[in-house]
Amino acid sequence: MSTTTAPTRLLSPDELEAALRAIGAERYHNLHPFHRALHDGKLHKAQVQAWALNRYYYQARIPAKDATLLARLPTTELRREWRRRVEDHDGTSPETGGIARWLKLTDGLGLDRAYVESLEGLLPTTRFAVDAYVHFVGERPILEAIASSLTELFSPTIISERVSGMLRNYNFITEETLAYFKPRLTQAPQDSAFALAYVKEHARTPEQQQAVLAALRFKCDVLWSMLDALDYSYVLPGRIPPGAFRPDTTA
After folding, report:
1. Residue 210 gets which letter from DSSP?
2. Is the model's pLDDT at 196 over the cut of 80?
3. 89-39-232-238 Cα dihedral, nearest 10 degrees
């Protein structure tokens, strides 16, 4: 099935899962040239810094995104499941959770923590794309909001590639620097298994199935556009927009 063609009939749950996975195979950002360059050791340190700084905004907004959905979930069971996601990223005490671990990455890359947290150096596209995702989850039907999280189906592969590739190719990267990623190898499959089961059970009409496929395509577009912006701004010369991170002055 084409990943851009709306279903004309009701798919079985297994067919729906196959269509969702086909979207990842075609559109997930592990295929992006900037991602490939990052993992293959073809970026210099300043370009890796730009990636980590901009990706921080995505990481920092994930619990806010999940909290907007949490507030709308109708049952204790659903809220309990989604609350765990917020705790995974925010932590349960200071210096715990995914956001704190991501800051260890930016620390290890030599970025000033106060500067990273200030968000002053973000690319405009990063801000627009991440904010669009938060608004999508807060405004779209619960089924579509949950479906948009299904990029986590594909994240264990990209995480394994990222960790091994960056450790192998960059002498300024250590296992401690990449501490964010290890817990995600178990968290992401747990999260995606729940979300996939929910979508397969509750997408009961062709229209609902079309909507969940579109939601996953939208999320893939968010992640892809963030890498487009990094590639344009930090790989091509002379393209860094005003106010964005400049390695020679803000690292």
Report:
1. H
2. yes
3. 110
CA distance 62 to 85: 9
Q: Which residue's entry shows tokens 């086909």? A: 22
pLDDT score recorded for residue 242: 96
Q: Is 233 helix (H, G, I), strand (E, B) or coil?
A: helix
pLDDT at residue 210 greater than cutoff 70 = yes
Contact in structure between 20 and 150 (CB atoms under 8 Å):
yes
Q: Each residue of 30-89: pLDDT tens digit?
A: 999 999 999 999 999 999 999 999 999 999 999 999 999 999 999 999 999 999 999 999
What local confidence, expressed as pLDDT, does residue 251 receive?
A: 42
Which value, to the nearest 10 degrees, does the dihedral of the CA atoms of residues 154, 157, 160, 165 take?
-110
Q: What are the pLDDT digits (tens) for 9-31?
A: 999 999 999 999 999 999 999 99
The rounded distance, in Å, linking the Cα atoms of 85 and 34 is 28
* CATH H superfamily, domain 17-235: Heme oxygenase-like (1.20.910.10)
Residue spans per domain, the chain: 17-235
**Cβ within 8 Å of residue 228, ≥6 positions away:** 32, 34, 125
Max distance between CA atoms of the chain, in angstroms, equals 56
The structure tokens listed for 3 are 């990943």
What distance in Å separates the CA atoms of residue 236 and residue 239, rounded to the nearest whole number?
A: 6
Q: Which amino acid is at 69?
A: L
State the angle between helix axes of 45-70 and 76-90 in degrees (0 to 180), rounded to the nearest 10. Answer: 150
Find the DSSP H helices in the chain. Answer: 13-27, 33-39, 45-70, 76-90, 98-108, 113-118, 124-139, 142-147, 155-169, 181-202, 206-230, 247-250
**What's residue 4's pLDDT?**
53
